């Protein structure tokens, strides 16, 4: 199974992506929490500072308040959260402090809000009235959380990377185990004869894969029983029919050897011909049924050198073609290897050639070609196939009415060819041709 198509690889990738999304979401939440906490600390510091200065004014007077504000402005805070002050008269004129002008904050209601300090600095501030002609603003910049946020970000990056690595590793191990268990089932269906699965009821895990395994074992066992029953029945039927026919043929042979009148001899020879035709028909029907029963079953298929196989068959047919007066030629690309049963593939090629030589009159042309793919074509310049018969000719016992009375045959040759082709996952059909017929076999891959 290719990795890019594996559902288990997709599950692992999805788990890693979800882990990444989870870590990212937690980072965003943590970042916002830290920022809100720092802002809350600034607000609390402003309220505490403002309350302290108000107490100083109430207990020690305005001069002491001014001195304390100057002292606080002279001190640089360690945490970087710089305080700012403005002590002003009733009109907002500055008495002391580093805030240039009174902002839009109402001291009568102790209004608070964010104000701008200088050009690019903002701070949280609160105003209050200390007397009829005295009002105070205390502002504080939020603490510099950049260093804290960077440290937290590094922790999240390291922890997130470790978390995703663990998720990916554990997910891969789990997916690998599931993949192995599923692949055992697939291998068992590809090659049922190997006994790759445990016997039914042998699993103790009891999960969905084990249930699927149990059903697969039962299905394969049932398939084997059906195939064995079919083989036994077909072999028995073949034996029961073929044996009496062969005995009858033996008696006819003895009768011919004993010598009889010419009319009787002619009838006996015709009877023997019919017997041989029935036996051949029976064998073809059994071959068709066996090929269809094994369709999709890859067991028993081996690499076959099609180029060598087809060349040997063509060399055998070359002598017959010379005797029958046919122009026969072939073009075979070397090194065409295909996985299949050599006997059946030979039968597939010979059936197509037999069909061509049977329908093409003496002096006609028959050509065979083989290319990689594989693509095997047998074409002739005979009478061709009527348009209405192009698909029917692959049915069992079907023979075109145009040739049914002229040529012998049972109408099973092309049906057997299609059954063998389908058993090997090949397609067979008629391609358009200017004259005659062109049968083409193609690999589905």
Automatic annotation (TrEMBL):
This is histidine kinase. Keywords: Kinase, Membrane, Phosphoprotein, Transferase, Transmembrane, Transmembrane helix. Gene3D superfamilies: 1.10.287.130, Histidine kinase-like ATPase, C-terminal domain. It is found in: Membrane. SMART domains: HATPase_c. The chain crosses the membrane at residues 7-29, 152-175. Signal peptide: none annotated. One of its GO terms (cellular component) is plasma membrane. InterPro entries: HATPase_C_sf (IPR036890), HATPase_dom (IPR003594), His_kinase_dom (IPR005467), HisK_dim/P_dom (IPR003661), HisK_dim/P_sf (IPR036097), Sig_transdc_His_kin-like_C (IPR004358), TCS_sensor_his_kinase (IPR050428). The keyword Transmembrane helix applies. It catalyses: ATP + protein L-histidine = ADP + protein N-phospho-L-histidine. It comes from Sphingopyxis panaciterrulae. Its EC number is 2.7.13.3. GO terms for molecular function: phosphorelay sensor kinase activity.
């Amino acid at each position: 199974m290719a990795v890019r198509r594996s559902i288990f690889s997709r599950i692992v990738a999805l788990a890693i992506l979800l882990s990444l999304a989870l870590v990212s979401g937690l980072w965003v939440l943590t970042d916002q929490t830290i920022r809100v906490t720092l802002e809350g600390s600034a607000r609390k510091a402003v309220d505490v500072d403002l309350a302290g200065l108000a107490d100083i004014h109430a207990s020690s007077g305005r001069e002491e308040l001014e001195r304390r504000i100057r002292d606080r402005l002279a001190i640089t805070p360690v945490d970087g959260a710089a305080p700012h002050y403005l002590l002003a008269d009733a009109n907002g004129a500055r008495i002391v402090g580093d805030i240039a002008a009174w902002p839009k904050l109402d001291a009568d209601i102790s209004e608070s809000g964010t104000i701008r300090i200088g050009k690019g600095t903002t701070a949280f501030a609160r105003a209050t009235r200390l007397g009829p002609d005295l009002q105070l603003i205390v502002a504080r910049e939020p603490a510099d959380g950049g260093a804290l946020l960077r440290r937290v970000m590094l922790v999240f990056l390291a922890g997130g990377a470790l978390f995703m690595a663990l998720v990916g590793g554990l997910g891969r191990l789990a997916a690998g185990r599931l993949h192995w268990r599923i692949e055992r089932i697939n291998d068992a269906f590809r090659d049922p004869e190997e006994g790759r699965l445990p016997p039914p009821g042998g699993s103790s895990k009891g999960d969905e894969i084990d249930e699927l395994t149990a059903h697969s074992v039962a299905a394969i066992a049932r398939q084997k029983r059906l195939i064995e029953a079919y083989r036994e029945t077909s072999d028995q039927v073949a034996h029961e029919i073929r044996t009496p026919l062969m005995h009858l043929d033996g008696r006819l042979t003895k009768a011919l050897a004993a010598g009889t009148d010419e009319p009787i001899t002619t009838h006996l020879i015709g009877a023997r011909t019919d017997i041989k035709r029935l036996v051949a028909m029976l064998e073809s029907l059994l071959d068709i049924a066996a090929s269809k029963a094994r369709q999709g079953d890859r067991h028993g298929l081996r690499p076959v050198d099609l180029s060598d196989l087809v060349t040997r068959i063509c060399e055998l047919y070359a002598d017959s073609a010379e005797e029958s007066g046919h122009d026969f030629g072939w073009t075979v690309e070397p090194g065409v290897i295909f996985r299949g049963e050599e006997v059946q593939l030979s039968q597939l090629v010979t059936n197509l050639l037999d069909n061509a030589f049977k329908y093409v009159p003496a002096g006609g042309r028959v050509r065979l070609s083989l290319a990689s793919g594989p693509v095997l074509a047998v074409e002739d310049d005979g009478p061709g196939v009527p348009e209405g018969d192009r698909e029917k000719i692959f049915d069992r016992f079907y023979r075109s009415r145009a040739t049914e009375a002229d040529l012998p045959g049972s109408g099973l040759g092309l049906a057997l060819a299609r059954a063998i082709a389908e058993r090997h996952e090949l397609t067979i059909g008629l391609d358009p041709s200017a004259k005659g017929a062109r049968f083409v076999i193609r690999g589905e891959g």
